[in-house]
Amino acid sequence: QVQLVESGGGLVQPGGSLRLSCVVSGSGFINFSANDMAWYRQAPGKQRDLVAQVFSGGITNYAETVKGRFTISRDNAKRTVYLQMNRLKPEDTAVYYCKGMNKWGKGTLVTVSS
Strands 37-42 and 94-100: what pairing? Predict the structure, then answer.
């Protein structure tokens, strides 16, 4: 059973930075490197939206609202995907979810406020 566990959320002031991590674990062989991974976010009262993707070959894709501020990366040896978030804005406040291998993590809350 594959599990995705996010961490790194918290309270940060506007203009600040956070790095989220998503570790993939489970029993048996997990072919992490062959799978596309993504970060989504869901603000209160809103739908869950794609933030960034990193494909198995390393190509990345970003939502327009985070381009130039967020960077997604992966470490296949650690079965971990990261989301570096810089120049955070109040509108980035949301629960951030990791998705991959047809699984979702439980999310980590990011609050951007002064």
Answer: antiparallel
